[in-house]
Structure to design on (370 residues):
């Protein structure tokens, strides 16, 4: 059986990284399209673009809140390169003037997904600069595709991972504390899902057997989050950027990102995707909040009683939802049946479910989570 492992070429993390480490991006090119939104631009984007010039990179913002439609039109018309050259104020037809282009994704999930899509369309490198640790999407070559109203559509796979992931822990520290907690929930699901894939000899998101490396990373992710996450949140509340905080940032972004992509996904994310993909049931909660409940649902369906208690206690202490009600869900029996059928059918979307898990196990788990 083939096993494989995918990752970015370079990961950098630390306080002030957006000021001191931008030179690392120079190897990707000298013209950067910075995909972001107006809020993040005002917060960090403007000064980042000005700092890029110091290391010899000309940057220009692309706002997902106002320019996404134009981007889609240019994609359809096949005129994307010329349009990007226009944005950057350079001539697209002269290689010398245009320089070497790359894309920077700056912000949260939406900006990062558009940045990855844009880089693929332009066939250039992408650097990811997340401004929160609310999910583990930064390092992966997977984008989650939602429609205009936020309903989950599918996973989209790119040929390569982002070339560079650059994390300024001072910027993550400034983001709302609840985003860090949501990222912890996403990170806690990583090991539980990777283990389900591993134990059944199933495939990861790359479509091969997971490596021992991936399982080791997922185990480390769990260990760090159990050891440090409560302390990290306390430190964040007290305004202290500590070792525990840095460790949780790395666990949420790097360990969890490499762990889920290479270890594989299972019931926790299947629950998220099926629930949020159903217009009648979807809840206005974040990825991490829904995954927190999905994670407990998985442990319940796997009948891992002691572990269920451990994860429940931790998620509860972190102020994350630990029941269907906490997500704002009151499900009729026929809705539960629909969800269970949807979850069982989700295998073809890339989520592995334990071979011995039955519809009855899932129904019992939903009952427990009520
Ligand atoms: Zn996730």
């Amino acid at each position: 059986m083939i096993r494989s492992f995918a990752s970015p070429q370079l990961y950098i993390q630390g306080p002030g990284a957006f000021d001191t480490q931008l030179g690392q991006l120079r190897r990707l090119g000298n013209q950067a399209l910075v995909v972001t939104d107006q809020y993040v631009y005002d917060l960090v984007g403007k000064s980042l673009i000005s700092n890029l010039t110091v290391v010899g990179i000309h940057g220009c913002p692309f706002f997902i809140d106002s320019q996404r439609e134009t981007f889609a039109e240019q994609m359809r018309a096949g005129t994307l390169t010329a349009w990007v050259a226009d944005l950057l104020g350079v001539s697209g037809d002269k290689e010398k003037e245009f320089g070497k282009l790359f894309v920077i994704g700056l912000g949260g999930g939406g900006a990062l997904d558009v940045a990855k899509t844009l880089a693929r369309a332009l066939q250039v490198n992408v650097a990811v600069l997340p401004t929160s640790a609310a999910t583990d999407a930064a390092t992966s070559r997977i984008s989650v595709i939602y429609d205009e109203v936020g309903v989950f559509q599918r996973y989209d796979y790119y040929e390569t991972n982002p070339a560079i992931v650059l994390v300024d822990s001072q910027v993550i520290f400034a983001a709302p504390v609840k985003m860090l907690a949501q990222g912890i929930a996403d990170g806690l699901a990583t090991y539980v899902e990777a283990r389900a894939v591993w134990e059944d000899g199933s495939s990861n998101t790359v479509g091969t057997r997971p490596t021992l490396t991936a399982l080791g990373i997922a185990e480390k992710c769990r260990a760090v989050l159990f050891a440090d996450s409560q302390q990290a949140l306390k430190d964040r509340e007290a305004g202290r950027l500590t070792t525990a905080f840095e460790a949780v940032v790395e666990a949420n972004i790097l360990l969890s990102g490499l762990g889920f992509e290479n270890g594989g996904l299972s019931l926790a994310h299947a629950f998220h995707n099926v629930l949020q993909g159903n217009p009648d049931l979807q809840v206005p909660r974040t990825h991490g909040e829904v995954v927190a409940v999905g994670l407990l649902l998985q442990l319940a369906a796997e009948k891992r009683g002691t572990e269920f208690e451990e994860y429940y206690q931790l998620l509860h202490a972190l102020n994350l939802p630990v029941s269907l009600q906490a997500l704002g869900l009151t499900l009729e029996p026929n809705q539960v049946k629909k969800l269970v059928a949807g979850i069982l059918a989700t295998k073809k979307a890339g989520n592995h479910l334990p071979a011995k898990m039955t519809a009855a196990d899932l129904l019992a788990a939903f009952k427990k989570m009520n």
Observations:
- Residues 212-237 form the longest helix (26 residues).
- Residues 174 and 365 are 37 Å apart (CA to CA).
